[in-house]
Design brief:
single chain; 2 domains
Amino acid sequence: MILLELFFGFLKVGCFAFGGAYGSIALIRDIVLSYGWLDEEMLTYMIAVSESTPGPIMVNLATYVGSSQAGLSGSLIATAAVVLPSFLIILLVTALLKTVLKNPYVQAVLRGLKPCMAGIVLATGFYMILKNGFVLQEQVLSLRPLLLTLLLGAFYFGMRKIRKGGISPILLICLSALAGVVVYGL
């Protein structure tokens, strides 16, 4: 009986929770408290833990509540129930997308969106450089982080041209970490 309650309770959450993780907390709270699976205090703690662990809050809460009520089978059923509606919607969208992408109007819209998205990403990058690239130290504006960022970027693109290939993202992350240590110290 508890497995059916877990399934249908979290299926409701998966079907009707809109607005992201924080929008779903109210619905999860209502369902968890109405079934008596957790008390208010424990639910608050579990929301905090679910927020700080990797993965969506709904999935983390469903897994914990299912586990606390019916062990491993409860956690599997609650987790499957909360992700089932999203999974089915993604399957439907994927099936429809194949036919929709052949439409010339949809293709025109997508071709128009590509430069817009590139512009948004570029504008965000420039904003972050301008916002975080200047450091005010004792009323003196320091360009050191900005200059280092520009130098690393120039080095990266120079090396890329020389090697006629790409640079490993892992190497780029390590170089960025090293640059952060050089600029800001440990």
